[in-house]
């Protein structure tokens, strides 16, 4: 903003809001003395060279820690990949990244492993395993220039790791001074991320608990509202220790309760006069008790009966010692199974089982219909028999008439 007053003094100002964003003001006074000031918001302290507000520093440290973690992962991955061409077995033996970089920095070339003492960075068993793997390694030979670059990369990883631990300790102290109750509820890093996302502790205190719960998941929220699907249950608060130690089924409930208690803690830290963390400790104890109740409730439903807890059975020791079976010492001939089955069948035949049969009920209608159907069949059979008898009689008569004539001719 460029403005000129009635007196003719021209000033160039870059101003900020109350949220703690630093501003640079260049002004010229009536006496001609030019001063350059870097000043902070109402919550900060103005100095000649430069300073930032309390919440601004906290948010910057939180984002800086995230950036350092990303850079450390990239550096360590490249270091393992580069040194893996020369000594690939050591990457599987040493899993800790810092110990790996310190060991590589001390070893250098693979041929120096036998004469190098790694007891400062590795246990005795791991050190012996590394020395044994160096003798039968399948890696290729690399130049001294490559070894030098790898060692320089290891130095960078070690320095960044040490700086990261120092910065994290500083962040813990700052968060305990600025927002002790919020720090107790969600942790130092998650609290710093929440403050950084909202802009300041005062802006974060203005948000309701439902907004604190999904803070950091705005993209997923608007996508869910646009497509009419389920909205997200948690945002940055997902990385809190209370949410992380719950089962997947109860993460939504715990995140909702944690956001409600955290919003109270944020308002107490931002607007309260006391700087103790008693309220945060009490609310965290309540949430932990509620978490235990939810987890035990699920166990009771699975393995208990009703509302009673499932009782564990009494432990009984089962010995693995085998007992000698004396049945194999018998010299009597064993009876075959076939003979046994035959004897059992003979016994069953000898003692027949008498089963009382129920008399079937007579159905007069069905019997009458069956009798009516059987009578015509009987009549037909009788008529056929009568016809056959008549035919036999006729044949006998014809034979009787033919026989006397044949006798006369003879």
UniProtKB/TrEMBL annotation:
PROSITE patterns: NOP. Residues 305-410 are annotated as: Disordered. One of its GO terms (molecular function) is snoRNA binding. SMART domains: NOSIC. It comes from the Eukaryota. Gene3D superfamilies: 1.10.287.4070, Nop domain (1.10.246.90). It holds the Pfam family Nop. Keywords: Nucleus, Ribosome biogenesis. It is found in: Nucleus, Nucleolus. Its main location: nucleus. Residues 401-410 have a biased composition (Low complexity). Residues 310-323 have a biased composition (Basic and acidic residues). GO terms for cellular component: box C/D methylation guide snoRNP complex; small-subunit processome. InterPro entries: Nop56/Nop58, Nop_C, Nop_dom, Nop_dom_sf, NOSIC. Residues 178-296 form the Nop domain. Belongs to the NOP5/NOP56 family. PANTHER family: NUCLEOLAR PROTEIN 5 NUCLEOLAR PROTEIN NOP5 NOP58 (PTHR10894), NUCLEOLAR PROTEIN 58 (PTHR10894:SF1). This is Nucleolar protein 58. It comes from Oncorhynchus kisutch (Coho salmon). The gene is NOP58.
């Amino acid at each position: 903003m460029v403005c000129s007053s009635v007196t003719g003094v021209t000033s160039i100002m870059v101003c900020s809001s109350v949220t703690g964003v630093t501003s640079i003001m260049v002004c010229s006074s009536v006496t001609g003395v030019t001063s350059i000031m870097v000043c902070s918001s109402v919550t900060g302290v103005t100095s000649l060279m430069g300073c930032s507000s309390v919440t601004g520093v906290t948010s910057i440290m939180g984002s800086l820690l995230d950036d350092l973690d990303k850079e450390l992962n990239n550096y360590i991955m490249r270091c393992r990949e580069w040194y893996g061409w020369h000594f690939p077995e050591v990457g599987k033996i040493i899993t800790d990244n810092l110990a790996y970089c310190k060991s590589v920095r001390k070893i250098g070339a693979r041929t120096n492993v036998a004469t190098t003492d790694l007891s400062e960075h590795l246990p005795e068993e791991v050190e012996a395993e590394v020395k044994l793997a160096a003798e039968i390694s399948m890696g290729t030979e690399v130049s001294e220039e490559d070894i030098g670059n790898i060692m320089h990369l290891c130095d960078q990883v070690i320095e960044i790791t040490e700086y990261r631990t120092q910065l994290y300790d500083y962040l813990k102290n700052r968060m305990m001074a600025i927002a002790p109750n919020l720090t107790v509820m969600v942790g130092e890093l998650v609290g710093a991320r929440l403050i950084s996302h909202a802009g300041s502790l005062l802006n974060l205190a203005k948000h309701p608990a439902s907004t604190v719960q999904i803070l950091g998941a705005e993209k997923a929220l608007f996508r869910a509202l646009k497509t009419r699907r389920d909205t997200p249950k948690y945002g940055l608060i997902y990385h809190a220790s209370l949410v992380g130690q719950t089962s997947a089924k109860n993460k939504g409930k715990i995140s909702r309760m944690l956001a409600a208690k955290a919003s109270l803690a944020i308002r107490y830290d931002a607007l309260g006069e006391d700087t103790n963390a008693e309220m945060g400790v009490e609310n965290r104890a309540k949430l932990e008790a509620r978490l235990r109740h939810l987890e035990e409730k699920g166990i009771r439903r699975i393995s208990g009966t009703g509302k009673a807890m499932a009782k564990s059975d009494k432990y009984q020791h089962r010995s693995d010692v085998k007992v000698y079976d004396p049945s194999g010492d018998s010299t009597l001939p064993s009876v075959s199974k076939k003979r046994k089955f035959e004897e059992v069948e003979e016994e069953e035949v000898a003692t027949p089982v008498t089963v009382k049969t129920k008399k079937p009920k007579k159905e007069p209608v069905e019997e009458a219909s069956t009798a009516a159907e059987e009578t015509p069949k009987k009549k037909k059979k009788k008529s056929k028999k009568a016809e056959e008898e008549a035919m036999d009689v006729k044949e006998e008569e014809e034979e009787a008439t033919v026989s006397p004539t044949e006798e006369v001719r003879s």
